Amino acid sequence: MQLEYFHMIDRIVDLNVDEKKIVVEAQVPKESTIFEGHFPGYPLMPGVLLIESMAQASGWLQLGVFKFERMPILAAVKEAKVRGSVFPGDLMSIEASLAHEGSGYAMTEAKIRVGGKLRANSTLTFTLIPFPNADMRRYMDAIAKRVGFPQQADSP
Amino acid sequence: MSSTFDQVATIIAETCDIPRDTITPDSHAIDDLGIDSLDFLDIAFAIDKQFGIKLPLEKWTQEVNDGKATTEQYFVLKNLCARIDELVAAKGTSA
């Protein structure tokens, strides 16, 4: 996880396109400039970054299910609950499932667990757009390789 | 069973917090009711779920952008309901 670059996801643990579910891992760094302000003496992951983490997990799920034909862009946070704090050094296990496939949009449900305990959950809406340019597609391909996106889930 | 319009009007009222009695078959979802594209996704989601269909929003948007259709054809509620009825009927035929 590189918070400053919004690289929230470290590894895809399991991507099941048939069941439309994904499990990813994200190792929260022990140190980050973000924790210098949030908060001095009591560093913890900002709730918005927990939502972003769930959104990115949902994004990889959709890239797998829709075979990289569209780029999911977060459009709405229908509900988000931060049920417990996530601290520097925690290993987050994030699971997401596709709740609805619409025409040009999709909805997911995602959860973050640390040590098996639920820390956050959300219901998210995404718009699905064509990749706007080749640079973005190449960038996503590179990130896919880094996080271990299974090749068989990619487009031919 | 309530009509397609009654169900859609209820969805819109509940999703967008619009008084039910201001929603008529001739209401234009965008121009009259002020529903934006993001709110319409919530409505589409609710309609998809309730009627067991998939509103082809991308196709409709493309047709409007290409000048092949007007927004009235899809977003005036009586027309939207007619499209929904067509999709429900097509689903029954293909089942």
Automatic annotation (TrEMBL), chain A:
Gene3D superfamilies listed in its UniProt record: Hotdog Thioesterase (3.10.129.10)
Domain of life: Bacteria
Keyword annotations of the record: Lyase
SUPFAM superfamilies listed in its UniProt record: Thioesterase/thiol ester dehydrase-isomerase
Keyword Lyase listed: yes
GO molecular function: lyase activity
InterPro entries registered for this protein in UniProt: FabA_FabZ, HotDog_dom_sf
Name of the protein this chain belongs to: Beta-hydroxyacyl-ACP dehydratase
Organism this protein belongs to: Bradyrhizobium centrolobii
UniProtKB/TrEMBL annotation, chain B:
Protein's name in the database: Acyl carrier protein AcpXL
Pathway per the UniProt entry: Glycolipid biosynthesis; KDO(2)-lipid A biosynthesis
Domain called Carrier: residue spans: 2-88
PROSITE patterns from the UniProt entry: CARRIER, PHOSPHOPANTETHEINE
One protein family per Pfam: PP-binding
Any single GO CC term annotated in Swiss-Prot or TrEMBL for this entry: membrane
Keyword set, alphabetical order: Fatty acid biosynthesis, Fatty acid metabolism, Lipid biosynthesis, Lipid metabolism, Phosphopantetheine, Phosphoprotein
InterPro entries cross-referenced by the UniProt entry: ACP, ACP-like_sf, PP-bd_ACP, Ppantetheine_attach_site
Taxonomy, superkingdom: Bacteria
Molecular function (Gene Ontology), one example: acyl carrier activity
Mitochondrion as UniProt keyword: no
NCBIfam families (alphabetical): PRK06508.1
Organism in which the protein naturally occurs: Bradyrhizobium centrolobii
Coiled-coil positions: none
Example GO biological process: lipid A biosynthetic process
